[in-house]
């Protein structure tokens, strides 16, 4: 699906695992609900990531990049594919400040809490939900934000609250936040950013 249509923003998604947030983007795009976007590349930091298969099934170019020279190889690929927007979807590597500065307001991340709660260095995956439950919060949720040099510190694009229920485990809370917040907010934020970028292309 490497469509170089001039009125669409070219999107790369970076993953490290199963790619459920990637699938949410693919589904919304295939439903025609992301008209300003063209997903053209999926890159994984793990060779065995199932998200690569999801990309393959959707006809999106995909590849694994190992630790050595990761950012240099990634940058070369992004430039080759003329990428406009980078989406971090369950991507567990921290990108350097030099990398982030190259794409101001063009790198989007989804975080499984209501920032500024349970965010920053060391808060990722189930660790976020474990911390939320240990604190006894009654509401959690997800935040989509632009990425800057500070972990989870970039400008917030969208947030959605999700209730914490009696008897929740980190796994059940994680699933509810994915279904009720992450999978909805992330495609919307990518489309919103793509619309802004394509307006500037005119």
Could you characterize what this model shows?
This protein has 6 helices and 7 strands; from the N terminus they run βαβαβαβαβαββα. It has helices spanning 20-30, 51-57, 70-80, 97-101, 126-135, 170-201; strands at residues 9-15, 37-44, 61-64, 85-88, 107-111, 139-146, 156-163. By secondary structure, the protein is of the alpha/beta class. It is globular, with a radius of gyration of 16 Å. 38% of the residues lie in helices and 22% in strands. The mean pLDDT is 94. α1 crosses α6 (170-201) and α5 crosses α6 (170-201). The chain has a single domain (9-201), classed as Formyl transferase, N-terminal domain (Rossmann fold, 3-Layer(aba) Sandwich), CATH 3.40.50.170. A 7-stranded mixed β-sheet has the order 3-2-1-4-5-6-7, with helices on one face. (6R)-10-formyltetrahydrofolate binds at residues 67, 109. It catalyses: N(1)-(5-phospho-beta-D-ribosyl)glycinamide + (6R)-10-formyltetrahydrofolate = N(2)-formyl-N(1)-(5-phospho-beta-D-ribosyl)glycinamide + (6S)-5,6,7,8-tetrahydrofolate + H(+). GO terms for molecular function: phosphoribosylglycinamide formyltransferase activity.
